[in-house]
Write a structure and sequence with these properties.
This protein has 168 residues and is α/β, with parallel strands linked by helices. It has 4 helices and 5 strands. The chain is elongated.
Amino acid sequence: MKLNQLSDRQGARRPGKRIGRGIGSGTGKTSGHGHKGQKSRSGVALKGFEGGQMPIYRRLPWRGFNNPTRNRYQIVNLGRLQKAIDSGKLDPAKPINAAVLCETGIVTHPRDGVRLLAKGEIKAKLTLEVAGASKAAIAAIEKAGGKVTVLQPVKADTGKKPGESGEH
């Protein structure tokens, strides 16, 4: 076998369609675009267009609001902590905070802090420092003999006085 004798298997490569090359090709004349009208032309986008009538996406009212300044917590469940302790990644004797959870790989990006939720069971006695925790998660940790410290989030100073709105 020589490199200049290599070729693809029969039928592995299909030749491209030669559009607009006469009626014998099957895609001649209108080149597969049918006959006449706006849609047969190129550069036409009709999604959402209702013939000049006010489109439905503009007739319906806006609903909801995306708060740009909301806190985005990374969620950690009790079962995940117990699994990490069982595998030896976490030391239950030392205090556990967001930095420790990042080092062990339980949390990848702490964002605005870690929030503890009560899914799963915890048997180890832990000391946790988290940005938020559910009541059930705190109760489960305390039942196992541990302690949870919920850190107060630091609010950014907006530069406004209390009671002052941003509109004039």
